[in-house]
Amino acid sequence: MKLFAISDLHLSQKENREALEAFGAGTERRFDEDWLIVAGDVGERVEHLQFALAILTRRFQRVIWTPGNHDLWCPAGATDRTRGQARYDELVDICRNAGVLTPEDPYERWPGLSDVEGADADQRPIYIAPLFLLFDYSFRPADVPREAAVAWARASGVAASDETLLNPDPWPSREAWCHARCDLTERRLAALPPEARTILVNHWPLRYDLARPPRIPRFSIWSGTSRTEDWGRRFRARTVISGHLHLRTTLARHGVRYEEVSLGYPRDWRRERGLAYYLREILPTPDDRFVPPHDPYRRAPPLPETRGLY
Question: Which of 4, 86, 251, 310 could form a disulfide with 279 if both were Cys (CB 3.0 to 4.6 A apart)?
């Protein structure tokens, strides 16, 4: 029994849909006893989520989902789409009807081995915690005030469609929605058994130092919240899983593994490898294929900033 993770399937892209269809039809590898984490950005329409879950729930024993920003997008003027909290609630209902675990459900204890077998295996219980936390523009330098954050990012040619497509209704702002989600989630995580370890799953990175893409570092303001900086240690995470940046990596911070597990747009992955190649094993034996020889977020000199639209 294994736990895998992937994010950013982006099923609005034809190549990505075809890869998922091929994975669903594939018989070269069986996942009948395995669990899969889907860490957001399945697609912009509810039909994308329904399409993905119809395939993935057939291939995996258990699927765990958390939303990303693309999942919550609603174009201005659209009258046939839910938005804000109502959109999130609609996606949760779709998942529950498919038997898929969401951030609104009790955290589930991992029933398989928690490590490779042996005398040194960590036998403490592990709970898988899908989170939905959003962002609040706090992933920015200390000398950039909040009211100047978006202009600061745009000055380097970086923009985010979240500014127009991610509606926070009924919350007064995206920050307010983010802080409400953090308050709720913090209480739930604190209520876990004190001996338990966790697998924390959020679409957006939990740490600022992991939310600065080398080519567009100012995109960080749309990539998380500083409220979660210490959650990996504080909530005894064995692994923290995220997506959003389309930078597949495995990095360590304070003894915690941070896994960015995105598939991304067609330019970000190789079609001939197939989707199964990009599934990241989390348990029982962590997948080290994406451990970089150096930390790409501390590259010197930095790469030039280029336009990014996510």
Answer: 4
